[in-house]
Recover the amino acids of this structure.
């Protein structure tokens, strides 16, 4: 029975996220638009954009990398717990693994910037973005390593996101929970416009069009959804244990999961408005706060 | 036998080299697998040395032309008891790595090497000075043959577990990541950090953590032995740090080993934070070097064996660890009975299958490499299907383009660029006048307005969020 519930949760989660991902991108851009006084897009706009592209001209040869990008992001979504910790892929939910999968999905898009037909300024802009994003990777991956170390220090024995949520039911670790909020915010700040914003992603695909572009856009939406899910699991690690839930409780959890994601998307969308430019200093400050909090928690007990 | 196939410049010699190398590998594999000690005069082959012999033989067979003198003389020197003869043989191997023997020992680097070799010959393992000698030997041999350097480092540090040794080794590992390469290159950083963590865990009697860290150490070295300078894209993908590839698991194991150390020992908390960050940086540097190689002009080559070896290590690292069972058990101080309670890797044959497809991380975490590798194979197939990355895309990527941020232009003169900038500003104004920015503009230029004045509000919001989460939980 537990196995059936675990696989059911996995399937429902993947279907839900595949449907929800473009809406989350809408939420992020809407939150940003509200604050900066720009015209707000309506929910569903991103889906419409993707559907329009899908109906456009089709270039079947280049579809392999686009599918690969979708599959890499989908793999990250499949191992990050959304609804409950009792999920088939949850034993693989390691922050480093999830982050590397999502960055791998982005790396597949990077190779589009180095195409055959070089239009000088357009492609140069794309290559510059690739260089900047490589730089940011040098900050993001260490923060992912830091998150693992923080979890080990704050709550010894909690391994991975699922283990963290499971252990928090048994033993409260307020300092770790607070520290993970800061660490997740540091991650969000570092990801910032380069990895989460749908508009800046367009620069990376200088020559893709039609269906191919729609697929790459969708892979980007899945990847941002994966980042949001990772950040959400770190910020609000209160997932229920699926094996012990009653039916109404499970329905409640399924409804609450998208709400949590929308909340995280809103926070990050707002953050992106404020934190343009050099984000490394705020990220270092946030990571430092996380370290101090978790150290205080460890030494206080 | 080790030295017999050093160099033999003919086609027959090449075949003989391969045959002899295969025999060498087989003997060492047998010794490592059975945990047998072989004594023959001054030569001693115990499982620990045999593990390094295997890796060095693999490395030597992997090189083109097969049979590099440096690893082979190094392999011979490892067989000899520590002492002057060992130092002499290792030094000879170091010198043979160069085109001229004399070139290896001139200049201040040569002087340092000579001093290191003399120390290696004089100081015995287990004494007070031994860890320093091991570290100096590593620094000497790492640019030429990292496997040999790691072997000497392990040989000289394992029997003298003073409290400062692991910290020193980890410190050197972190130092290797410095932007200027002072003593070490960045690729040796994770090896050093894994070894430091393993020694610290061994000293604290944390068998499972120590085992995970030593597994990471040997996986780093194993990947190094299989890797080649130039290879096709599938091999590069298999060698990368993507989850499921061969390069991921050692980083994962090292990270979780240091996490386990921090969970158990309070005085390793700061070290765990530093090593966790440094491992992340090392992973990014590793993947960046692979990314640059992906676009380098290359021949596809006959990489079938290499690819299958890497895929085998990636999918079934448990098999690799089963092979190295005897040295790993000896090094980590783990007895099979003590491990079986924690679901460790080495148990009775009945539970071998679990060990093959589940790897414990030393702090309670588990990883399923087979599942991840299967997933990566799907990705690899997708990437190489149709006009994927693997097809001939004439690449225009230059290292300077990737590595220098903010370098742009060069094709247009200043006047042209000034005109273009002005035109772009006019166009932006015009677009604004016509009715706002596009919803999803094609470029990021001219995106949303930012307001630095509201940063204080954002900081307050962040603090409130953190505090709310703490209060809500506690």
């Amino acid at each position: 029975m537990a196995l059936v519930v675990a696989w059911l949760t996995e399937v429902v989660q993947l279907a839900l996220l595949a449907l929800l991902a473009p809406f989350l991108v809408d939420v992020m851009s809407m939150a940003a638009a509200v604050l900066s006084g720009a015209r707000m897009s309506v929910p569903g706009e991103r889906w419409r954009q993707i559907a329009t592209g899908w109906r456009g001209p089709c270039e079947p040869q280049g579809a392999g990398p686009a599918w690969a990008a979708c599959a890499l992001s989908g793999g990250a979504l499949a191992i990050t717990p959304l609804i409950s910790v009792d999920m088939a892929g949850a034993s693989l939910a390691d922050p480093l693994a999830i982050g590397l999968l999502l960055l791998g999905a982005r790396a597949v898009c990077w190779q589009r910037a180095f195409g055959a037909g070089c239009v000088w300024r357009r492609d140069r802009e794309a290559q510059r973005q690739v260089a900047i994003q490589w730089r940011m990777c040098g900050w993001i991956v260490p923060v992912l390593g830091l998150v693992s170390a923080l979890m080990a220090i704050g709550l010894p024995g909690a391994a991975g996101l699922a283990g963290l949520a499971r252990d928090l039911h048994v033993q409260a670790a307020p300092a770790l929970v607070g520290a993970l909020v800061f660490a997740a915010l540091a991650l969000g700040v570092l990801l910032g416009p380069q990895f989460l914003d749908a508009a800046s992603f367009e620069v990376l695909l200088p020559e893709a069009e039609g269906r191919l572009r729609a697929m790459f856009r969708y892979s980007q939406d899945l990847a941002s959804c994966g980042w949001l899910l990772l950040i959400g699991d770190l910020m609000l690690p209160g997932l229920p244990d699926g094996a012990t839930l009653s039916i109404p409780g499970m329905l409640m959890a399924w409804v609450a999961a998208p709400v949590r994601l929308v909340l995280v998307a809103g926070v990050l969308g707002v953050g992106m408005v404020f934190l343009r430019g050099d984000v490394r200093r705020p990220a270092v400050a946030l990571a430092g706060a996380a370290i101090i909090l978790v150290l205080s928690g460890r030494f206080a007990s | 036998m080790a030295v017999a196939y050093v160099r033999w410049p003919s086609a027959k010699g090449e075949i003989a080299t391969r045959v002899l190398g295969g025999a060498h590998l087989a003997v060492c594999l047998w010794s490592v697998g059975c945990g047998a000690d072989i004594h023959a005069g001054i030569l001693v082959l115990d499982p620990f040395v045999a593990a390094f012999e295997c890796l060095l033989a693999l490395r030597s067979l992997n090189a083109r032309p097969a049979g590099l003198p440096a690893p082979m003389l190094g392999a011979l020197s490892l067989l000899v008891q520590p002492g002057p003869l060992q130092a002499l043989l290792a030094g000879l191997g170091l010198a043979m790595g160069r085109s001229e023997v004399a070139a290896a020992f001139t200049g201040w680097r040569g002087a340092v090497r000579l001093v290191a070799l003399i120390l290696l010959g004089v100081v015995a393992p287990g004494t007070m000075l031994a860890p320093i000698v091991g570290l100096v030997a590593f620094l000497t041999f790492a640019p030429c043959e990292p496997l040999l350097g790691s072997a000497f480092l392990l040989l000289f540090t394992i029997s003298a577990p003073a409290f400062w040794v692991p910290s020193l080794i980890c410190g050197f590992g972190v130092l290797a990541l410095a932007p200027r390469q002072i003593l070490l290159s960045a690729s040796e950083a994770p090896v050093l950090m894994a070894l430091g963590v393993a020694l610290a865990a061994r000293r604290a009697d944390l068998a499972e953590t120590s085992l995970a860290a030593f597994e990471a150490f040997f996986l780093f070295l194993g990947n190094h032995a299989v890797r080649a300078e130039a290879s096709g894209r599938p091999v590069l993908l298999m060698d990368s740090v993507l989850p499921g590839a061969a390069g991921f698991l050692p980083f994962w194991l090292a990270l979780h080993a240091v996490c386990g150390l921090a969970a158990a020992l309070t005085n390793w908390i700061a070290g765990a934070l530093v090593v966790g960050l440094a491992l992340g940086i090392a992973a990014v540097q590793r993947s960046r070097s692979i990314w640059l190689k992906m676009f380098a002009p290359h021949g596809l080559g006959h990489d079938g064996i290499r690819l299958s070896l890497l895929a085998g290590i990636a999918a079934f690292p448990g098999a690799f660890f089963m092979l190295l069972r005897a040295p790993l058990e000896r090094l980590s101080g783990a007895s099979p009975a003590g491990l079986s309670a924690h679901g460790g890797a080495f148990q009775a044959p009945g539970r071998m299958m679990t060990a093959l497809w589940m790897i414990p991380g030393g702090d309670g975490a588990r990883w399923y490499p087979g599942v991840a590798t299967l997933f990566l194979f799907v990705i690899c197939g997708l990437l190489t299907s149709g006009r994927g990355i693997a097809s001939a895309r004439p690449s225009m990527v230059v290292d300077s383009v990737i590595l220098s941020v903010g370098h742009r232009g060069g094709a247009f003169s200043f006047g042209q660029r000034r005109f273009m900038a002005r035109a772009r500003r006019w166009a932006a104004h015009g677009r604004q006048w016509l009715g706002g920015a596009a919803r999803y503009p094609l470029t990021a230029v001219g995106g949303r307005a930012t307001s630095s004045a509201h940063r204080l509000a954002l900081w307050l919001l962040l603090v409130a969020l953190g505090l709310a989460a703490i209060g809500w939980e506690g």
